[in-house]
Each structure stands twice: as structure tokens, then as C-alpha cells.
Amino acid sequence: MLFNPATYDPAHLDPESRRLLLALVRFFEDRGKKTLVKNYIDRTWYQDFLEFSADQGLFATFLTPAADGDGDKRWDTARNAALSEILGFYGLDYWYTWQVTVLGLGPVWQSANSEVRKRAAELLDDGHVMAFALSERSHGADIYATDLILTPTGDGGFTASGTKYYIGNGNVAGLVSVFGRRSDVEGPDGYVFFAADSRHENYHLIKNVVNKQMYVSTFELTDYPVRDIDVLHTGKAAFDAALNTVNVGKFNLCTAAIGICEHAMYEAVTHAHQRILYGKPVTAFPHVRRELTDAYARLVAMKLFSDRAVDYFRSAGPDDRRYLLFNPMTKMKVTTEGEKVVDLMWDVIAAKGFEADTYFDKAAMDIRGLPKLEGTVHVNLALILKFMPNHLFNPAEYAEVPARQDAADDEFLFRQGPARGLGAIRFHDWRIAYDAHAALPNVARFREQADGFCDLLRKHAPTEDQQKDLDFLLAVGHLFALIVYGQLILEKAGVDDHLLDEIFAILVRDFSGYATELHGKTATTDEQAEWALAHIRRPVADAARDDAVWQQVLALAGAYEMRP
């Protein structure tokens, strides 16, 4: 299940995708661990990686839609996810420059402006990266309140002035997608997305706002000339382009988390198994076995959910927007699970996790950022709650979504349409996946909890006051998110029954934990509190299952170590 550079061969992809991904692995392995660690500590700008990507045509091939490119160029979420995972595996900083390029291209590929689309494709061919300038220091990513102002010049163009903050690649981006508002138009009709160039004399780079190898800039535009041919979107379409870009680009957070955890796990399990305490390997201690098994099962679950979510992205269309639920799930649930995975391993390897010459200490720092890079956990949970009534109680008929690894262009992602109507999106019956695996004891036990949650909402639904209490609703949101998480894990499956049942043993425990949290909320009614206590469950124990999964964990010891 885990990515291993020593055995990796994406033979399921087309020859050019396979060549590029294997070349990427070789690039990092040839540099070796000492070089990557030193560059991380010294905050060395990754010019060598950008030169490699340009020379190989990596970003141009993976990030140019088929309509704007030729040959093997397409926007293929499956192979993009594979690339994102590899970059996360070797270092979040390398992933970040890719991720920000994805975001910078979002408003471009959604635009009808053929001139800018052509310019973006040429820049990718020349090896440039892109930037997405939405955030401002005073407003964060609140696109209702931007202070970058475009003043009309009378000839169809504008001059743009204002400062953007937390803008990745802002130091070198060949194209910067900038969000602002017109000085002469009030409200949403005044929004504008336009293309800028970081090399222009009216573009003033101020500084890197983070103490990292990546460059997260703040920059200022001073009377920057915006020609009519630079405008990507205006009015409500600019607002929609911002949100739809996030739908496409922030999905990569989950695969970055997976890659980070995979590399850290090889290092942690190998260290623990080789370290002798009291005359026996650290892995012989029962609590260590439990923690590493838990970490492994959670990591596999992260990967199963994310892989299945890819299928829904690739099969989306105007009449099937289920991906809009699974996207915040990857941004919130998968990334927070990544934090748990690292913490469990850190409890095992203890002081080793602080050492400068390990990958682990970088993982422990970087894994924290992913749940916070897009709106934080509470924002995504609030978004997830919009889908809850239809998902649980109002299923629709859909053709089964197949596993999607075909070499197709995911062109719908750039014509998603208006970013509204989330509460009206319908889903297939979530119970189907659970029924298909009902023979597994912990799947059955978790299904009891999920059915109980539906009863809670039918009989003791949140009151009007509780629906205004975000703290209360977040506890409800965590319970709902677990049901969605388990559903896609079961749909993907493909692992042995021991491991799948182990994953659901964890979900049973997690559901019980969130039920306990709901019980303790001040806003919780007596009836809701009674429900919470009644739905705390212990997982079904199985020593043979535990041992079988532990053998999978132990097989990771020495299975991969990065070249010195």
C-alpha cells in the first residue's frame, strides 16, 4: 500500500507519465538524504528542482489541459495525485511550489481569455511556475473583503494597486493570478481576476513571510498596468473562479500528508525495530505495537479515502457534484489524520524525532501546516455540514463510479460553473458500501453507530440556537465526517480483511470519542447527551487480526532508507 521508491513503478499509467514520475524519484534519490536535509535546514531555494522540472517538462505535461497543449499534456487528477504524493514524500517545500502553480493556473484554465491561456501554456513549456494571489494580511482568504484596487484607465484597462500576502512562488512566478476589485463598481460585480508577471517593474517583492525553504511572499502592486487582454474574470465569475480553483487545487493537501507520513513511517518503524531496550527490540513492547499498528492503519485509511475521492473528481459533471463533499473531507479529515499518524510514531521514537539529520523532524513540523493551509479545520467542517441532510437521508440513483486511472483530461474541473447550491447536491446511498462489508465485525459495529447518528438527527436534531453555535455543530460535524470517511474507504477497499477491520476498529473508537465530546458540550440537551453515552462502543477484539496487521507493520522495518 505504501509508496516505496525502491520498488515504485507506476505501470498503470501511460509511458510518458511513468517516465516522468520515475525520473522525479531518481532526481531526489540521486541527491540523497544529506543534501535534502541540509537544504531544508539552510532554507536553500530549490532552483535545482525547478531546473529539473523545466528540463523534463514535468509541470508542463501534468498541468496543461489537453485543449491547451499537445502530446501527453492533460489535467489528469490520478497522475497529479501520484506526483503530489511523491513530492510530499521528499519534502513539503518541493510539494508547495507545485501546489501553488496548480492554484495559479486555476483561474487561467477557467477563463475564456485565449491570449492568457496561450501565454500560460508557453510559460509552462519554458519551465516557469505560477502563483495565486488571493490572500491579504488583513483579510486572509476572505474574498469578500479585498483591498487590491483596480482603477479604470479609460481604454478598457486598469491600473492595479495594493498588497497581497502569503503568496507562494511570488518571487519567481511567470504568471500571477491576482484577485482584486474595481474602484468604480460596488459589490460582487466589481471583482476582477487578472494575470500579472512577477518580473514587471511595478511588481514589488517585499519579503518571504515564513522561515522556510519555500518562498511565501508578500508583494505590492503600484499602478500595475492591467490591459484588457490580461483580465481573466470579472464580477461574480471572478468570485466563482476563486472558489472553484480551491476545489481543484487544495485537494493536493491530502496526498502531501500521505507522502509525508509514508516517509516518516519507514524511518520510525526501522528505528524502533533496530533499537534495543532492556534486551529486546522496542517493537517487542505491547504499547509500541499498538501505536505503530494504529499509525499504519490510519495511514492506509488516508490513502484509501483519497484514492477513491480521485474517482469522483474525474467522473464529475454538471449533474454529479459529489466531489464537492469529498474535497473538504480530504482537506480536513485526511490532513488531521496525518497529524495523528505522526504523533503516534513520535511517541514511539521519542527523542529521535527531534534529531536534525532525520526526515522525521521535518515531517513533524510540516504535517502541522496542511490542515491549516485551507481555511482551518472548523471552516471545512462547517462546509461539510451543508451536505449532511441529503447525504444521510435523501439518496439518489447514480451509475457506479469506476476506478479512474485512464489517460483522460479532467476538463470539467475548469467549467464547474457557479459556486453555489451545495445543500442541493444529492448522493448515492451511503449504506451500500457498508452492507457490502457487513461481515467484518468492526464494520458492522461502526454501522450501528452510524445508524444511531441518523436516529439522533431524526429525533433530537440540533435546535435553532444550537445551529447558531459553531462549537456545538463541529462536534456533530466530526461524527458525520466519520461516516463519509468510512464509506469511501469501503468503496476503495482492495486490502485484506484483517487490515480493513483494523481500520474500522479505529473508527469505532474515534466515533466514541466524538460522542463523548458531544456529551460534554454546554449546549447539548439532556436527550442528546443520553444518546451520546448510549452510542459509545468498544471495537470487536481479535488477536489474530492484530497480529496479522502487525506483521505488515514490521515488514516496513528496513524496507526503505533514503540514499545518504
UniProtKB/TrEMBL annotation:
Gene3D superfamilies xrefs: Acyl-CoA dehydrogenase/oxidase, N-terminal domain (1.10.540.10), Butyryl-CoA Dehydrogenase, subunit A, domain 2 (2.40.110.10), Butyryl-CoA Dehydrogenase, subunit A, domain 3 (1.20.140.10)
Listed name of the protein: Acyl-CoA dehydrogenase
Keyword Cell inner membrane: no
GO CC list: plasma membrane
InterPro entries (UniProt xref): Acyl-CoA_Oxase/DH_mid-dom_sf (IPR046373), AcylCo_DH-like_C (IPR036250), AcylCo_DH/oxidase_C (IPR009075), AcylCoA_DH/ox_N_sf (IPR037069), AcylCoA_DH/oxidase_NM_dom_sf (IPR009100)
Top-level lineage group: Bacteria
Organism: Actinoplanes derwentensis
GO molecular function, one term: acyl-CoA dehydrogenase activity
Cofactor: FAD
Record-stated family: Belongs to the acyl-CoA dehydrogenase family.
All copies of domain Acyl-CoA dehydrogenase/oxidase C-terminal, residue ranges: 239-386
Keywords: FAD, Flavoprotein
Alphabetized Pfam families for the sequence: Acyl-CoA_dh_1
PANTHER family hit by this protein: ACYL-COA DEHYDROGENASE, ACYL-COA DEHYDROGENASE FADE4-RELATED
